[in-house]
Amino acid sequence: MKQQQVYNLKEFAARHHLESIFGAYAAHIYIDDLCEKDFIEMALERTLFTKLVLVTRGRIKMGVLQQNTEANNSGRSLSAGELLVVSPKHVIAFSEMSRDFEAECILVDEEITADVVYQLSDDKQKAAIDIFHIIRDIVRHQHIYKVEMIQSMVNVLKLLVSELPYENVSVTRDLRHKKEVYEIFLHLLYRHFKTERQIRFYADKLNVSAPYLSRMIKDISGTTVNDHITSLLYKEICNLLKQSDMTMGEIADHLHFSDQSAMTNFFKMRAGMTPLAYRNQG
Question: Residue limits of the HTH araC/xylS-type domain (predicted)?
């Protein structure tokens, strides 16, 4: 019997013409953009990466295949609000997709506790969608630290499915777990950096003091909270200058600078040139 080929993420993306892809590390797919036949065939292929499927509407039948055996749990339906995590050693046999079925998928070359289905509350589903979209946006745009940013978001997703809330999180009993708090800080930062520049905002969200958060971020990352914020702002300006037709004033408004001059000065201090010169360079 011919052995089934096993694809890494880059090979898989090329085979299925995926557009939101970063090398052999991460990809994002809107499953509702695929026809049912393509999605079912895609899921049956053996791969070297973890697959996370978040159903946002409708339902589909599923079963886990192991070592070319028949699917178990073949009568189990995956429904809206559920998150399926599939390890590299398994494939999923899908069938009977409802007409209104919609889902998103993150493919990532990371080890995640897998082969489980999580039922998400409305709040957690919204948080999961936010994380999926952050990963999608990181994959699509130019970033110096793409792998690290995606790793951070995957770690936040791990915390989410472990029932750790975000927006009103209490970390009193977890202060020793500085790395976990750091991942939550990054999640909040990616969601709010365009509008929130003050450390107090993030400290309040985490229920810790601003001095504690400042020390913790510096201990873990070697850089300050302000460094994190300004780095994201600078990269976002670079992305908008290269990837959009927005005017300088529109970019300044979008990123909540006081005016265009403030954004220009901010950018010149980091790039050594004006935003317009950066846009016009090759």
Answer: 183-281
